[in-house]
Write a structure and sequence with these properties.
alpha+beta; about 50% helix; about 270 residues; 3-stranded antiparallel sheet; single chain
Length: about 270
Amino acid sequence: MSIASVEIAQQVYAKLEWAEKQILDLNELWNEFREHNYPVESNRDPDTGKYVCRLTDAAPIPSHVNLLAGDAIHNLRSALDHLLYRLVCLGTNSLGPFDKVYFPVGDRPREFKARIRAIKKCLKPPAVERLNEIEAYPGGRGNDIWQMHRLNNFDKHRLLLTVTSQNRSRSSAPERVADIRRKFPGMENVPAHNDYRLFQTGIPPKIDLKAGDILDILDEAEVQPKMYFPIEVAFREPGIFQGNPPVVETIQRVAGTVRVVIQGFDSADLLE
């Protein structure tokens, strides 16, 4: 294996690992931002006796969030493109250069298969077989890859991906927390001061948050001394997603899918 060939193989993992670092940076950036910019107050309504949990401020999402998300997505897409380039190098026994070598993704199954047929002559048969199994199209096994591909295309032609703020959970009621602690061995060793963050209950999503929004209305028994309503940054791309999936979790899942794809080729000795 030549030095150039080794470099191509290393670039596959280098792009993936750089994307994973950007996802960690994105998560850290968002966690820091939301801690200081989405305060919630819980006040008892004297007429109903219930506690109204209201968002008292909601700062605009900083552009750094969109930019980091776009960079991470682009590097995940690039990792797969480097993977295919490596497969073409091995299939043709040449280091190229090769033009228009992109990892196959389609908006429909037949389009995905057509993209594989277009490069089939440049690949070894086992590589073609494994590519077909990935099904990088809507509803296929590689649906995550299709979503990443579409987001990457948007990011190349628009300044920013469309994101918004969202809340889907809150601190669990004290009784529920106590019940969990009783049922699970070892919980007595977990400090209780973070229970309001550690144990959460799902609630109907609230999207496009603004100051004054009511996040939930609770009976007194449901209220923790401290209440936590984790605010997410979520995608607002209806052409790609149903609903508004959280940005960090979604890109983390895509990164996991990309890693599985690369390791699948690697473990089958198709990158050597």
